[in-house]
Write a structure and sequence with these properties.
- It holds the Pfam family 2-thiour_desulf.
- InterPro entries: 2-thiour_desulf.
- The structure is a single chain.
- This protein is an alpha/beta fold and about 150 residues long.
- The protein has one domain.
- It is about 30% helix and about 20% strand.
- About 45% of the residues are buried.
C-alpha cells in the first residue's frame, strides 16, 4: 500500500486550490492501492492558504526544532506542518504503507528538493517536514519524478 499527495489524485488541495493530477497515481487511488493525504490540510491549514517555505534548514531541521515553516506574510505555521506530518504518518501506519509518493518542492512533501526559504522561487536540496518524518519511520519516499510505476 502507498500513500500519495492528494493533489496527485486530482484533489484541489494545493495552497492555491489547484491540483497536480497524475493519471497513473489517481488510478492507484481508484483501485484501492493508494490513499491520498494532504499534510497541510490534515494539520489544520485552509485551502486556499498562503504559500509557505522552510526557513533555516529543511524538514529534518524542523523536526529537530532547528528550522521553522513561515508563510509569505511572515506567519509561523510550523506547528500546523508538524501536526500534518504526524497525521500523514498515522494514516500511512494505519494502512501499512511502505511507500509514499509526494509532491516535490513542497515544504511538506518534497523528497529531494524544496524552496530555499526566501520566496524567490529558488530551490535547494532538502526534504519537506512530512517526507522527513515518514523516512524516520522507515517509509520509502519518492516524488512524482522518481517513483517506479
Amino acid at each position: 500500500m502507498k500513500i500519495v499527495s492528494g493533489c496527485f489524485a486530482g484533489i484541489a488541495c494545493r495552497y492555491d486550490q489547484k491540483h497536480n493530477r497524475i493519471e497513473e497515481i489517481r488510478q492507484l487511488v481508484q483501485e484501492g492501492r493508494a490513499v491520498p493525504v494532504c499534510p497541510e490540510q490534515m494539520g489544520g491549514l485552509p485551502t486556499p492558504r498562503n504559500p509557505a517555505e522552510i526557513v533555516g534548514g529543511d524538514g529534518d531541521d524542523v523536526l529537530d526544532g532547528k528550522a521553522r515553516v513561515i508563510d509569505h506574510q511572515g506567519h509561523d505555521v510550523t506547528e500546523a506542518f508538524l501536526a500534518g506530518a504526524r497525521e500523514a504518518l498515522a494514516m500511512a501506519q494505519s494502512v501499512e504503507a511502505d511507500e509514499a509518493i509526494l509532491k516535490e518542492r513542497s515544504p511538506s512533501c518534497g523528497s529531494c528538493t524544496i524552496y530555499d526559504g526566501t520566496f524567490s522561487k529558488s530551490k535547494k536540496s532538502g526534504v519537506g517536514v512530512t517526507a522527513a518524518l515518514l523516512r524516520r519511520h522507515g517509509i520509502r519516499v519518492a516524488s512524482e519524478e522518481t517513483w517506479e510505476k
